Amino acid sequence: MLTGLTMPELAFLIVCGVLLDYLLGETRRWHPLVGFGNLATLIERRFNKGGARFLRGAAAWTMAVAPLTALGSWLTGSAGLIAHAVLLYLCLGLRSLRDHNLPIAHALQRGELAQARLLTARIVSRDTAGADEGDLAKASAESLLENGNDAVFGTLFWFLVAGGPGALLFRLANTLDAMWGYRNSRFLSFGCTAARIDDALNYVPARLTALSYVLLADNRKRAWNCWRLQTPHWPSPNAGPVMASGAGALGLALGGSATYDGVSEQRPPLGRGRPAQAGDIHRAWKLVKATTVLWLALACAAGAGVYAWGAPHA
After folding, report:
1. How far apart are CA 138 and CA 252, in angstroms?
2. Cα separations (Å) of 15 from 160, 192, 207, 290?
3. Which of 43, 89, 200, 226 has the highest Cβ tally under 10 A?
4. Which of 27-36, 185-194, 264-273 has the lowest mean pLDDT?
5. Membrane spanning segments where (predicted)?
6. Number of helices and strands in the chain (H, E)
7. Residue 1 resides in a domain
């Protein structure tokens, strides 16, 4: 471990962080990641102009991430376990996934299509103005599956590796990828560093998340085959395994057409089965929640095993 923490301590802190997130959710005001997003916007406006956009993007990424990660390291070194737990809580987004997605399902089930479109537009970048129930359910389910990795399991993985500073580094890098990692004229060169670093940090967690979805699937063979056969066709090296295995685990046909900035795009298929419906948003949430329980159980088992192995015997 890079933290100096023992496995029993890490297991205890992971349980604390997840419970705090699940019970309290996002802070209603002054959320650190929201503040970081505002800072990233200011930095991008200052640096993303003129020549040498790749170098400017690398410098901007370093300026945004390095000082805050160093601050996190200082805090955990000064305050100890409590700082690790607080950092993990602030970086997790499990409760946020539930609070942003289940209202979409409820609106669809009540026949409130306009409300469901508005709620979905808050969590995805695709156009929702003309979306029907199937489009909205698909968008929400995809968001839950992918962000299960980005907002929960990737954060837990890097917490296990490097404690609170590791979780913080991962979430900051992931946020910059979401803001700067677009393949368009504005961000192609400037956001390259953000995209590649996020790909590297997410590589192992994404595959552990995909494996978890397979293990928890009703039809493991279908989930595994979707992961194995569909991932090579998906443009994102990490979102592909996560969403393909998750869609296969749920028995849903996701991917396909989606509209961005008024232009319809045909994306590779994800999963196999029927189209998504409102109730499948609940099923996707339950899969993410069950995966969280699995990871917590494994962390606690590892912590207990290390503790028992190291305990003195009569």
Report:
1. 9
2. 12, 35, 22, 14
3. 226
4. 27-36
5. 292-310
6. 12, 2
7. no
Through-space distance between the first and last CA atoms of the chain, rounded to whole angstroms: 29
Cα distances (angstroms) measured from residue 167 to each of 69, 86, 162: 9, 11, 7
Question: Is residue 225 packed enough to be buried (19+ CB in 10 Å), middle (13-18) or exposed (0-12)?
Answer: middle
Helical pair 133-147 and 278-310, crossing angle rounded to 10 deg = 10
In a domain, 311, yes or no: no
Are 214 and 249 contacting, i.e. CB atoms less than 8 angstroms apart? yes
Give the whole-number percent of the chain exceeding pLDDT 90: 83
| C-alpha separations of 48 from 42, 55, 236, 275 in Å | 10, 10, 24, 40
**pLDDT one-digit tens code per residue, 260-273:** 877 888 999 999 99
Q: Which two tokens stand for residue 173?
A: 């890098």
Looking at the domain assignment, is residue 312 inside a domain? no
* Nearest of 99, 104, 170, 175 to residue 134 by alpha carbon: 104
Residue 307 confidence class, pLDDT cut points 50, 70, 90: confident
Q: Are 135 and 128 in contact (CB under 8 A)?
A: yes
Cα 23 from Cα 295, distance rounded (Å): 18
CA distance 62 to 64: 5
Confirm whether 113 is domain-assigned. Answer: yes
Domain residues for the domain of 13 are 7-306
The token pair that represents 35 in the structure block: 């503040």
